[in-house]
Structure formats: structure tokens, C-alpha cells
């Protein structure tokens, strides 16, 4: 059985700690802050700005799945997350609460693997 070098665990831990801080603002600024208004303006319809970036958000996250069946679930789940976030942004025109919610979800998904990694459970 292969063992993971200690330095590699620490690199993984550092990446997992910084990921939520970087990923959440970048994705929300890109999808809701930039793409949503551009598509709504380009098509002249608010629904285009809500739906099209949500499809992209879903498709982007399918790479996280371990199988094609999982990819379909991820696409659907992240599409609906994107749709909900897009609706919130459309009605309130505020990105910060969406960034915070995205950050909390990312932290939860980064923290558990980090704890397991540092406890040598994998």
C-alpha cells in the first residue's frame, strides 16, 4: 500500500484552507455579478440572465463527480443552486450574501476532507 508523504498532506491542507476564500467570490462574481447581467441585457430578458449562467454553473461542477451518473446529479444539483442564487441576485442585487453562503458550503466540503487527511483516515 502506498503512503502519502507528510509534506503532501500539508500542501493539501493549505489548499483546502484557502479554497473557500478564493473560489466562492470568484464564482459568484463571474456567474452572478458579470454573466447574469450580460445575458439579461444581451437577450433583453431577465430569464436568460438567470437560466444560462445557471446551466454553466451546473456543467462546471460535473467534473467533481466520480461517475457519469454522479455527473448528472451534480449538473442538476448545481443548476438548481445556481438558479436559486441567480433569483436572489436578480431580486436583491446583492452578491455578498450569496458569496457568504457559497463560502460556507465550500468550507464544509473542504473542512471534512481536511480533518480526515490530517487524522490519517482516507
Task: Give descriptors for this structure.
single chain, 122 residues, mainly alpha, 84% helix, 0% strand, elongated, Rce1/LyrA-like_dom, transmembrane, protease, hydrolase
Low-confidence segments, given as residue ranges, are none
**Estimated structural class:** mainly alpha
How far from one another are the termini?
12 Å
Shape: elongated
Tell me the helix content: over 70%
Task: Give the helices and strands as they follow along the chain.
Answer: HHHH
- Gyration radius (Cα, Å) is 17 Å
Please state roughly what percent of the residues sit in beta strands, choosing from under 5%, 5-15%, 15-25%, 25-35%, 35-45% or over 45%. under 5%
Blueprint of the fold:
Blueprint: H1 6-43, H2 46-61, H3 68-92, H4 96-118
Give a written overview of the molecule.
This protein has 122 residues and is mostly helical. It has one domain (6-118). The protein has helices at residues 6-43, 46-61, 68-92, 96-118. It is elongated, with a radius of gyration of 17 Å. The two termini are 12 Å apart. 18% of the residues are buried. The model has no long low-confidence stretch (mean pLDDT 91).
Quick overview of this protein structure:
The protein has 122 residues and is mainly α. It is 84% helix and 0% strand.
